[in-house]
Specification:
Largest sheet: none
Shape: rod-shaped
Strand content: under 5%
Radius of gyration: 13 Å
Number of strands: 0
Helix content: over 70%
Distance between the termini: 33 Å
């Protein structure tokens, strides 16, 4: 995975987006398991 470190804001936003996507995917899987 290539990450372009332009500004701290961009990196933080990208990390937040990635974390949100992972959380959503994990929650989706848990809900499907129930």
């Amino acid at each position: 995975m290539m990450m372009m470190m332009t500004t701290t804001k961009t990196t933080t936003m990208m990390m937040m987006m990635m974390m949100a996507t992972t959380m959503t995917m994990m929650t989706d899987r848990l809900l499907h398991k129930l």
